[in-house]
């Protein structure tokens, strides 16, 4: 059996959990029984064990969701509805959508679709992309990078970011189609050349160079890693990691800072000034990497700043000041949180806009992160960006 793209926790639990296997074996006969006690005992087993381990029981219920017996079908659906009202139960339902058992996956997607999960389309694109991966493996077309993007897309979907997950999965599908098409064209070229080579040889044409080109083409088919797509895929993965950091940081900041701070700079403590200076330094690095055409490097700079300077540094030492409503620390972290969104806006505009609208717009007033001016203590970054842009335009003009 060929190795799949993603192994669902629901499949793992369902296969190793003895009680769920027993429930599966007796569910039909017990729920269809004419004996009320037998039916009651099975319902109790389903819901008792399903509450403890929904990952093992929810897939079983999905398997029997469309049972031919109306009595069984009605009870299975009622139990599934109750078990998936909890957070763990709903997570088990989402996980079941990626089961290797297609009926379980399809039923999970249909149930989730009714709950607004946009699951049917996502599952369809996932299956199409998965099929293309199998074709790519069989044809020895490099696809490891796209498999990683697909797994990231599933994790993004499970986090509730449906639009981003769909965008990534559609990209994976399109890239695989392009690679398989390129591979097919190259394979056809080799076959054509092989047919022509004997004829050309008999005509006195030197075929050594032709044979060398065939060998090079065959090697390219097996070893090509599609570096042209690497930056795009790296950017998507980096964006996913950064999204999680932003969510954690902006939640932390805006839950503690209840109003836009207006503290003047002269009341800031040394620690506050230090983190703002560090922001200015990372802002310069990010602007330079963006100008150099290295968006992944720019986002990595931001990721490291949030992890090392903000989370491990400032918040570890100064977090108590935020909790105690210290205005200087409020002012500092509000501007850092907002400034980070402004900093990444040219690279990942959708992410920066999403977080601005969710966390800052009500208190900042500007309709978009892209129309918002830089926060006061970080305003020099705006001037630096403009100077770089002017210098770039001047250099291009001089070359002309």
Care to describe what's here?
- The chain has 400 residues and is mostly helical.
- The protein folds into three domains: 1-117, no CATH class; 118-225, no CATH class; 229-399, Isoleucyl-tRNA Synthetase, Domain 1 (Orthogonal Bundle).
- Helix content is 78%, strand content 0%.
- The protein contains 18 helices and no strands.
- It has helices at residues 9-16, 18-31, 36-52, 54-63, 70-83, 87-96, 102-113, 119-138, 144-158, 162-202, 208-223, 227-256, 270-291, 295-323, 327-344, 349-359, 361-364, 380-399.
Strand content: under 5%
Number of helices: 18
Largest sheet: none
Average pLDDT over all residues: 85
Shape, per Cα inertia axes: flat
CATH topology of the largest domain: Isoleucyl-tRNA Synthetase, Domain 1
Helix/strand-derived class?
Answer: mainly alpha
Please give the radius of gyration in angstroms. Answer: 28 Å
Point out poorly predicted stretches. Answer: 385-400
Helix-strand topology string: HHHHHHHHHHHHHHHHHH
Number of domains: 3
Q: Could you state the CATH homologous superfamily of the largest domain?
A: Isoleucyl-tRNA Synthetase, Domain 1
State the main characteristics.
Isoleucyl-tRNA Synthetase, Domain 1, disordered C terminus, mainly alpha, 3 domains, 18 helices, 400 residues, 78% helix
């Amino acid at each position: 059996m060929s190795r799949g793209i993603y192994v669902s926790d629901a499949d793992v639990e369902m296969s190793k959990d003895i009680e769920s296997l027993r429930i599966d074996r007796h569910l039909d006969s017990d729920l269809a029984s004419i004996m009320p006690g037998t039916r009651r005992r099975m319902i109790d087993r389903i819901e008792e064990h399903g509450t403890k381990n929904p990952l093992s029981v929810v897939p079983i219920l999905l398997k029997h969701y469309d049972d031919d017996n109306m009595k069984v079908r009605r009870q299975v659906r009622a139990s599934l509805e109750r078990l998936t009202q909890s957070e763990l139960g709903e997570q088990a339902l989402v996980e079941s959508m990626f089961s290797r058992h297609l009926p379980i996956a399809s039923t999970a997607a249909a149930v989730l679709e009714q709950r607004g999960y946009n699951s049917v389309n996502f599952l369809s694109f996932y299956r199409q992309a998965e099929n293309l991966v199998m074709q790519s493996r069989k044809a020895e077309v490099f696809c490891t990078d796209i498999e990683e993007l697909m797994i990231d897309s599933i994790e993004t979907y499970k986090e509730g970011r449906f639009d981003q997950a769909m965008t990534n999965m559609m990209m994976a599908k399109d890239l695989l189609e392009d690679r398989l098409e390129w591979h097919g064209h190259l394979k056809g070229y080799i076959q054509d050349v092989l047919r022509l080579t004997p004829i050309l040889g008999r005509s006195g044409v030197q075929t050594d160079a032709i044979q060398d080109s065939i060998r090079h083409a065959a090697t390219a088919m097996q070893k090509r890693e599609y570096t042209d797509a690497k930056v795009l895929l790296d950017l998507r993965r980096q964006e996913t990691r950064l999204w999680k950091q932003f969510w954690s940081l902006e939640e932390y900041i805006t839950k503690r800072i209840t109003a836009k701070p207006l503290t003047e700079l002269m009341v800031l403590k040394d620690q506050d000034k230090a983190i703002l200076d560090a922001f200015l330094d990372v802002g310069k690095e990010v602007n330079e990497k963006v100008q150099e055409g290295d968006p992944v490097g720019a986002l990595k700079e931001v990721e490291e700043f949030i992890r090392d300077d903000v989370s491990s540094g400032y918040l570890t030492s100064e977090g108590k000041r935020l909790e105690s409503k210290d205005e200087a620390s409020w002012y500092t972290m509000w501007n850092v949180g907002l400034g980070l969104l402004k900093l990444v806006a040219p690279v990942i505009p959708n992410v920066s806009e999403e977080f601005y609208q969710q966390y800052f717009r009500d208190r900042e007033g500007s309709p978009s992160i892209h129309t918002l001016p830089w926060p006061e203590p970080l305003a020099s970054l705006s001037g630096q960006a403009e100077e770089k842009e002017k210098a770039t335009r001047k250099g291009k003009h001089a070359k002309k």
